[in-house]
């Protein structure tokens, strides 16, 4: 883990109220898919009680030439500054951090449970698995309120054609509020949905990430199924 300086290269809207930020990759920065970094604004024009740093998962995969993070654009000083910073602005990154990386034993499937912006580590892992032709079977359960809120949904759908060992199960909790329409799964991620798509719900390694109410619900559900702590890896995105 080390502190590096990097520059903002560009921004891109990836869902309603959700922006991806691309940064140059400092030489010597190497991460594993699923890891995070601590992003610090240098001399920002405004700040608040939460300070000038936030942890973010690196949503880009290790083989990509740039670093990308994605976040919901809440009205906080940190995000206002990030959203209006001129292209080329220098920021500091400290990392990589975290242990939510894919397990080694490829005979054991990986089940990813993503709540909203909690998709970021799984986007990195899915891109990494597709490009590196990893032998693992991956099941991504991706929950949002509406399709409009689901960052990277198109790419995650298309990835099924690139990686035959990967499966996406997207769920919308409030599809009736969408202007796009939705014909996929409805509601939150729950045991019955896992049972519908997995051959055996007790054998995979489970990974989950999202806002605290979602991660708490996932942990409780997996405990009720009888999944051991060692078979769960998770990241709680506090602040939502
Ligand atoms: C490992 C990790 C990876 C993350 N990855 C992402 C990501 O990829 N994308 C993303 O959007 N977000 C991610 N987050 C969350 C992110 O760091 C921010 O907290 C979130 O984006 C909200 O920031 P904010 O500026 O909108 O709100 P903030 O101003 O940070 O905070 C909003 C609320 O959260 C509370 N809060 C702040 N810090 C803490 C804390 N340490 N513990 C409990 N409550 C706190 C505040 O009191 C406040 O009420 C990650 C967090 C962690 C720990």
UniProtKB/TrEMBL annotation:
Gene3D superfamilies: Nucleotide-binding domain of ferredoxin-NADP reductase (FNR) module, Translation factors. Its cofactor is FAD. The lineage of its organism: Bacteria, Pseudomonadati, Pseudomonadota, Betaproteobacteria, Nitrosomonadales. One of its GO terms (molecular function) is 2 iron, 2 sulfur cluster binding. Residues 1-103 form the FAD-binding FR-type domain. Pfam families: NAD_binding_1 (PF00175). This is Oxidoreductase. Keywords: 2Fe-2S, Iron, Iron-sulfur, Metal-binding. Residues 42-61 are annotated as: Disordered. It comes from the Bacteria. PROSITE patterns: FAD_FR. The keyword Mitochondrion does not apply.
């Amino acid at each position: 883990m080390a502190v590096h300086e990097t520059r903002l290269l560009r921004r891109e809207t990836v869902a309603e109220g959700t922006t991806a930020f691309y940064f140059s990759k400092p030489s010597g920065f190497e991460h594993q898919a699923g890891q995070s970094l601590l992003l610090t604004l240098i001399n920002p024009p405004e700040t608040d009680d939460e300070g000038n740093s936030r942890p973010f998962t690196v949503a880009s995969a290790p083989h990509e030439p740039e670093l990308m993070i994605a976040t919901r654009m809440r009205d906080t000083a940190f995000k206002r500054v990030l959203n209006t910073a001129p292209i080329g602005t220098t920021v500091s990154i400290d990392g990589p951090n975290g242990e939510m990386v894919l397990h080694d034993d490829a005979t054991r499937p990986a089940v990813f449970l993503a709540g909203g912006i909690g998709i970021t580590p799984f986007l990195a892992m899915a891109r990494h698995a597709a490009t590196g032709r990893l032998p693992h079977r991956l099941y991504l359960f991706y929950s949002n309120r509406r399709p409009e809120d689901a960052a990277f949904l198109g790419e995650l759908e298309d990835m099924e054609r690139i990686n035959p060992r990967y499966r996406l199960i997207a769920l919308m909790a409030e599809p009736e509020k969408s202007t796009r329409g939705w014909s996929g799964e409805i509601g939150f991620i729950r045991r019955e949905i896992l049972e519908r798509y997995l051959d055996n719900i007790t054998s995979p390694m489970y990974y989950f990430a999202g806002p605290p109410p979602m991660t708490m619900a996932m942990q409780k559900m997996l405990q009720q199924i009888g999944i051991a702590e060692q078979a769960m890896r998770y990241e709680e995105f506090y602040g939502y």
